[in-house]
Amino acid sequence: MTKSKVVFDPFSEEFFNGAWETYRRMQEEAPVYYSEEYDFYALTRHEDVAAGFKDFETYSSAYGIDLAMVRTGHPPPQKAIIFMDPPEHRHMRSLLNKVFTPRAIQSQRQMVTEKIQKYLNAADPDRFDVVQAFSGPFPVEVITTMLGVPEEHAQQVRHWIDESLHREPGQVEVGEKGMQANIQTAMLYYDLVKQRRAEPRDDLFSRLIDAEIERENGEKTKLDDIEIAGFTTLLGGAGAETVTKLVGNAPVVFARNPDQWQKLLDDRGKVPAAVEELLRYEAPSQYQVRRSMKEVHLHGVTIPAGKPVFLINGAANRDPDAWTDPDKFDIDRDRSEAQNLGFGYGIHSCLGAALARMESAIALEKLLDFMPRYEVDWDRCKRVNMQNVAGWQNVPVRVLR
Ligand code: HEM
User: Is 341 near ligand 1, meaning CB less than 6 Å away?
Assistant: First the structure.
């Protein structure tokens, strides 16, 4: 009997539920996968995905980083660092590196701890939905506080992001509601830039208004309103959804691996390692799409120029050629075996990684205090249907006493 050809559909229930078996088959049977249905290519082996992230000349970000954007063949209208290639990317990144210094992140520790604690203080130990009551609301508050978005808008910003990332099975393009949400988000940030220009404060908006960037002609100028609104919109999204997913995955993964939870209860010093393993085991952002800028020959397949190419870091993080026993969740694993691609790699690797690590570690610490023993209500767990981000929408638990 011949085996059926492997099919990877990033807009299917199978993807939303975690496509681990499909990834393994792609690595073995189709390391350069071609989707006839959507006309894209995909790389899943660790070696290829890491090389793809590094080779920005072949795999461009300037046409967007999701299928809907890249397949238009045009650069997206939004101005944001994540959609830039060098040299523009280099200039923007060096500007942002000055704003996102390790010290600036560390100075937020108190604020982050307070936000996290606030939600746990309000939580009911008998009926606690870890995503809805905790990992959903706190990260967006952290990033919007840093930006300087008034608190009353924080949760609204999150609902808009959720809306814009939501996909029904088979839906590639952002829907009508998602489009509206994007417009409202852009308008909110644009208004805030205007307000901060008139009245500076000690926040990221004001620092971005003051910052100077080197342009292609070597001239140094300030960012314009559209550039600042574009970047802050990106931060609102990138800084919230992903942390929500990582922290929301934790109660599920640890319930399935109780020995690992016990290790953390016994030794809190292992919390940072647990964050890294969560990031590897189920990367919150499963893939980034690029556009091939020239013909690529790899593993006997030719990728033509001008095609969307999925770099599936979620699969690479489970590649048996990179990791020993990759499907095992092991917070003590040897992390030097391979590069964890959960934060991407190369020039676009996550700008917020230090903040994300800090938020996730504090959140795990506080969860260990709040629910040292817990049981998950599996029947009421529900996953999100989103493009590129994977994780849970509901994880109801009961704290055991
Ligand atoms: C667990 C949480 C997070 C995960 C898994 C994550 C993942 C990623 C990944 C995979 C990329 C690479 C995108 C690409 O190559 O196209 C990225 C880029 C980025 N992330 Fe994160 N991220 C997280 C948290 C954050 C936070 C908290 C912030 C906000 C400060 C942030 C801001 C950014 C920005 C601005 C970029 C674009 C950088 C560039 O283009 O140079 N991320 N992130």
Answer: no
Residues of the chain under the 50 pLDDT cut: none
**CB-based contact 286:18 (threshold 8 Å):** no
Other residues' Cβ atoms within 10 Å of the Cβ of residue 389: 19
Ligand 1 geometric centre to CA of 288 (Å): 11
pLDDT at 104: 86
Per-residue pLDDT tens digits for 242-268: 999 999 999 999 999 999 999 999 999
Specify whether the CB–CB gap between 55 and 85 falls below 8 A.
no
Does residue 62's CB lie within 6 angstroms of at least one atom of ligand 1?
A: no
Instruction: Output the CA 352–ligand 1 centroid distance in Å.
Output: 6
Question: Longest C-alpha distance within the chain, in Å?
Answer: 71
pLDDT at 386: 81
Q: Which CATH architecture has domain 13-371+383-399?
A: Orthogonal Bundle (1.10)
**What are the extents of the domains in the chain?**
13-371+383-399
Amino acid at 372: P
Q: Is 119's C-beta closer than 6 angstroms to any atom of ligand 1?
A: no
Beta-strand relationship, 392-394 and 59-60: unpaired
Ligand 1 midpoint to CA 348 (Å): 8
Give the distance (Å) from ligand 1 centre to CA of residue 61. 14
Query: Which two three-digit tokens encode residue 192?
Result: 């805030």
